[in-house]
Amino acid sequence: MSALYSIAEIRQIEHAAKAGLPSYTLMQRAGEACARLALSLVAGEDEIHVLILAGPGNNGGDALEAAHYLSQFDLHVAVALHADEAKQPDDARHALQRARESEVEFLDVADPGHLASQRWTLVVDGLFGIGQTRPIVGKLRACVDYINTLRCPVLAIDIASGMNADTGSVIGGAGCVAVRATHTLSFIGDKPGMHTCDGEDFSGDILLESLDIEESCFVTPHARLNELSLFSSALKPRAGNTHKGSYGDVIVVGGAHGMGGAPVLAARMAAHAGSGRVFIAFVDDAPAYDSVHPELMMRQADRVEFSTATIVVGPGLGTSRHAHDVLSRALDAQGRIVIDADALNMIAAEPGLQHKLQDRAQHTSIITPHPLEAARLLDATTAEIQHDRPQAARLLARHFKSIAILKGAGTVIAFPDGEIVINTTGNPALSTAGTGDVLSGLCGALLAQGWPATQAALAAVWMHGRAADQLVDLGVGPVGLTASEVIPAIRTLLNQIIRDHAR
């Protein structure tokens, strides 16, 4: 299991580890691990110049300890120091002394012009660690801006300076800066903020270093990364003695005038993902059939009975009074339901619909908002949602007593008990109209086939992203990939992982 630890949990683990170790032990281990990785990143270079940015506190101490180790090799090491020695903790002060006694050049971090006088082979970012709370400003910002122009590898210690390790947002919000690392060496454990919001863009390749801390010091995590093992138990080959009734019915509810494509995409995905029968319940006039997939059955929403099927409600639903009444009836159904798009917007606007959703707690409900829809549901702004995506997803799941899939970079899947899973598949190719409809249809198809709700949500998000990754690897995207192209790719992937799991 790929555990993710919050800042508070990392502090707790670190405190427990230090209680059983001599002082300075963890900093020595961290500095040596950083130096080893740094050497691997410059291997093969002829003339090596390493710039180490060392800030206040233990993160800067780790950087200084790395400088001490690196100075013992045939390379030039320069430290740009941004710390008041008198205010440094004991371990960091000791590391500074060791660096000064080594063959290390000290530079002024506040002078980007001085830093730019050398051509760097590698930059090590030890300015700020997970404890940073204030944005990077002034001359230090100019230093970060300069670092971000370099084309050499940039190795961040624990987390890129300027990034929030819990949320993945740049500290200070819009207009503020963070170091754009090509590699991050994360100490003790992985952090949620490196995998959602801006985290992936600023963390680069993430490597973990436990610092040889005893297993007994670790706490139980409440977040983890999404991976195939979390839902593999639901991957079962189909038995020969089955029929369409064995794989459930999906009813996609939507299709207001001018928005008929959204439910068609969701329905096509549900069929491609293995649903026995797929219906589209249109709130406006239904077409006679889908000329591409005539196996989809078209109905008027008023004439559809919701009680025996898995419902996907919201794609192209609109917000008319008629749409409202159809949504209300869908929420009254006792079966499994996936709620997306306009259905979420109407729920956000009306307390009565919110209560209906909350009252479904004993049944399966999955909501799939993007950040703007989440903002409406939580009476917040999109910026507030993006500022702390893990917390927003937790609030959604708890308030609406549902599994919440907060879409976006590093989609967060949250559960009513407060546990979250952050997805690592997917890419900007999915930033196009209709891909959310595809995801909701995939969720519905897995639920209809009897998958447990937790595994259905995790698998749908993982496969949705993974299929897009595979298409990009084949040269289909990221620019110009369409939602329709993702559907058959998901079918291929689903069948492949079922076969692989059966071996």
UniProtKB/TrEMBL annotation:
Cofactor comment: Binds 1 potassium ion per subunit.
Record-linked Pfam families: Carb_kinase, YjeF_N
Gene3D superfamilies assigned: 3.40.1190.20, YjeF N-terminal domain (3.40.50.10260)
Ranges for domain YjeF C-terminal: 227-497
Keywords: ATP-binding, Isomerase, Lyase, Metal-binding, Multifunctional enzyme, NAD, NADP, Nucleotide-binding, Potassium
Binding site for AMP: 407-411, 436
Record-listed (6S)-NADPHX binding positions: 58-62, 129-135, 158, 262, 316, 370, 437
EC number assigned by the record: 4.2.1.136, 5.1.99.6
CC cofactor: K(+); Mg(2+)
Keyword Lyase: yes
Reactions listed under catalytic activity: (6R)-NADHX = (6S)-NADHX; (6R)-NADPHX = (6S)-NADPHX; (6S)-NADPHX + ADP = AMP + phosphate + NADPH + H(+); (6S)-NADHX + ADP = AMP + phosphate + NADH + H(+)
Residues that, per the record, bind K(+): 59, 125, 161
Alphabetical list of PROSITE patterns matching this protein: YJEF_C_3, YJEF_N
Family matches, as InterPro entries: CARKD (IPR000631), Nnr (IPR030677), Ribokinase-like (IPR029056), YjeF_N_dom (IPR004443), YjeF_N_dom_sf (IPR036652)
Chain ranges of the YjeF N-terminal domain: 10-219
General function of this protein: Catalyzes the epimerization of the S- and R-forms of NAD(P)HX, a damaged form of NAD(P)H that is a result of enzymatic or heat-dependent hydration. This is a prerequisite for the S-specific NAD(P)H-hydrate dehydratase to allow the repair of both epimers of NAD(P)HX.
Family note: Belongs to the NnrE/AIBP family.
Quaternary assembly: Homotetramer.
Protein's recorded name: Bifunctional NAD(P)H-hydrate repair enzyme
Protein source organism: Herbaspirillum rhizosphaerae
Source lineage: Bacteria, Pseudomonadati, Pseudomonadota, Betaproteobacteria, Burkholderiales
